[in-house]
Design brief:
Number of domains: 1
Distance between the termini: 67 Å
Mean pLDDT: 90
Helix content: over 70%
Largest sheet: 2 strands, antiparallel
Shape: globular
Low-confidence stretches: none
Radius of gyration: 20 Å
Number of helices: 13
Structural class: mainly alpha
Amino acid sequence: MKTPIDIIDLIKYSLTSLVFAYFLFPIVIKILEWKQILDTPDSRKIHHVRTPSMGGIPIFIGVAFSLLLWLPGSHGEINKYLFSSLSLFFIIGLRDDLIPMQPKLKLLSQLIPIVIIVILADLRLFSFYDISNFQFNPIMSIVITIFSLIVITNSFNLIDGIDGLAGTISIIALTSFGIWFYLTGNYTLSFITSAFVGSIISFLIYNWSPSKIFMGDTGALLIGFFLACITIYFINLNFGLESTSPYKFEASISTAICFIIVPLVDTLRVFVIRLTHFKSPFHADNNHIHHILIQVGLSHSTATIVLATINILFIVLAYFGRHYSDKIMLLIIFGIVILLLVALRWFQLSIKSQTKKTTIK
């Protein structure tokens, strides 16, 4: 049983960052508008009004303030390198929002904080876990971990395309991970996660349609990287739990995928489509799932709620399938994802067909 003070500690991190960021957002919005540092609409973007796009600034400051205020200093080397890497990602995102970088330069710059967390903090994937007994050698472990961190970080960045979506999905995923960390006694990770949730809730208040500020790369890269790190922490910690633990998921990888299913599936889908059309996987377009939902007539809020509900249902699936192995769960996840994508495509074609008939009449 957890004592009341543990729960109070968990809540105070979230409330502190929430309140601090909430009062900081109007100030940042006014400054960005005053300095005309605004996101300008173009053919690729959905919004039609010039809008501030550095919501990551109050998010980062809110998290930092909460952790500096409450988190004890003696929490090991992991946190030192985690905070350093998060700070670097914040700076990379800030630079890209102020002076856009080429995709290759942006990707290369991300390697610096990623290498720090992988090499110095030894945050690594060591095997295929429940899928296979094959163990990675040190070089393979580093390469696969770096690749995984890059994919998860940027997959979250790619879903930041409509009002409320990135904030809502991150709150769902972070809350799920945070509760699990708390229940398994990994309090430091749960406290840090709680601080992020608080700041993002305050951001969502200003980002819900019609939004007053966007997350921007300043926030999306920061949150995406943190999600990537705690995903790997979860896989390793869950895999190491005793089989008798009530919080053990037999499928470590599949469960982690369920927690971040929306950004992962969306990224994989657009990359496959771009490659099949002989385009660079980093070529920006309007073919993301959230773009399609808007194109078929859903509002920003409705599209966000639909995708958030899907993410929650996959987390529920992971919970009820916690006694199944990765081999079984991956097949189930893959099957459901294919069905949902087929249904989305059918719905998209159906709407287009109806629109053409109406136009002809």
